[in-house]
Amino acid sequence: MNAGRRALGIAESYRGIDDGATSTLGGAVVRANRAVDDFALTTCLVGGRDATDAVADLWNRLDRPDVRYVFVAGVAPAWYNLLDLDALAAATDRPVLAISFEASDGLESGIEDAFDGDERAARLDAYRSLPDRFRLRVDDAPLFVRSVGLDEPDAAAVVEAYTHERRPEPLRVARALARRVDAARRDGRLASE
One Pfam family, short name please (predicted)? Predict the structure, then answer.
């Protein structure tokens, strides 16, 4: 893969900020050679259903047609604020790769325990509509990938190209950005929205 090819990584940080209502989403444009090109921030509601729109808005504000892939850290930021990967792929016109870092039995039981009625049904429908995960080993560490817009071999090659340690670099940088901003908000050094 070309060392200058860019990917946008989106990762979340939430540490119980006083307002309790929003989670910080960091976005980082990173080249395959690990050079960082750009940043963006947004928020989504904890326990809400606006994460997909927040990520699409972040993409639009960045206005980076040179970005070839979108990476997201998991599919349920901000306490089951589920991402619609198909909608993100349509909004960005790019392949979307959701990466998780641990094996799990899935989110259905957690959703069932946390929500009732229409909220439960909507989240379960959204979760069940996601593409299946496949397991990938990079540097002897397992990653779990859901892909929209790339078949499994191509998705694996893209994830491997951007992973220099345990996390794909766009997600590592986005997570660090979100954590720093979230900590500054929590400590009162940045105003909450």
Answer: Endo_dU
